[in-house]
Amino acid sequence: MLELTDVTKQYRVGEQTVRALDGISLRIEAGEFTAIVGPSGSGKSTLLHLLGALDSPDSGSIRFQDKEIGDLDDDRQSEFRRHRVGFVFQFFNLLPTLTAWENVAIPKLLDGTGLRKAKPRALELLELVGLGDRAEHRPAELSGGQMQRVAVARALIMDPPLILADEPTGNLDSKTGASILQLLADITKEGNSVVMVTHDMGAVRYCDRVINLRDGLIGSIDRVERADDGA
Ligand code: ADP
Ligand code: ADP
Q: Each residue's pLDDT tens digit in the chain (231 positions)?
């Protein structure tokens, strides 16, 4: 699904250049749940941003379903993000004035679909994440775990092949976090790929592979035997 070859990214800060990624090569297959771990400053966020076409590499290639995405212009990057990627964040990023189902429908609205037309699929996805009875609730009326479930449903509404999650359990207690990880693991059974940046070492047991970053380089890639609490 995704293939990175010799990807580098550096930032210029004043006179200094920081090498955030220093020649990364890796493949991510369809249906794989991948964790990216590593110390602060090792390049995790930079890598996630490149995978989601939020930013472009300085050199190297990023191929997504056999198409180069590393050199897209801004409009094409935006188009790629809208249709190919679902994002899940640490702090959920829900709009407080909208109900759960309206939050789920937002990517459809941004893509020009009317709210009413998007509703059936939004309700279906809330059902899928176990919140069928919370569709009319606003974020303030939901627990952290429920808000993250809404965010996962929102990430799925465009049917993207790739879900990128940035510390999805970082703001949840460990039991609630585990249920979100199980939900992400379940999603990959439909063939979606999930790539997650995490500090939570308990999270890696839900994954197929763990990529350890260190100073912008891949220190190791470990294959994990998934512990499946679900079906
Ligand atoms: P991590 O997510 O593992 O903490 P990052 O990808 O955020 O690592 O950062 C990798 C390196 O790049 C760090 O040295 C960081 O300071 C630097 N960096 C990240 N983003 C920027 C930026 N926008 N401008 C300048 N330096 C940055
Ligand atoms: P544009 O405004 O360029 O059309 P969008 O803002 O619609 O792009 O972004 C498309 C997707 O990328 C959205 O799902 C959004 O959540 C995600 N996104 C945009 N900016 C960021 C960011 N800085 N960090 C993480 N995800 C982002």
A: 999 999 999 999 999 999 999 999 999 999 999 999 999 999 999 999 999 999 999 999 999 998 999 999 999 999 999 999 999 999 999 999 999 999 999 999 999 999 999 999 999 999 999 999 999 999 999 999 999 999 999 999 999 999 999 999 999 999 999 999 999 999 999 899 999 999 988 899 999 999 999 999 999 999 988 776 554
Taking the alpha carbons at both ends of the chain, their separation in whole angstroms is 25
User: Hey, is 92 helix, strand or coil?
Assistant: coil
DSSP secondary structure letter of residue 206: G
Write down the pTM of the prediction: 0.90
- Nearest atom of ligand 2 to the alpha carbon of 93: 16
Measured from the Cβ of residue 10, the count of other Cβ atoms closer than 10 Å reads 17
**How far away, in angstroms, is 45 Cα from ligand 1 center?**
7
Q: Look at residues 89, 81, 67 and name the one whose alpha carbon lies nearest to residue 152.
A: 89
Q: Whose CA is nearest to atom 15 of ligand 1?
A: 41
Q: 212: how many CB neighbours lie within 10 A of its CB?
A: 16
Q: What angle do CA 101, 169, 166 make, to 5 degrees?
A: 85
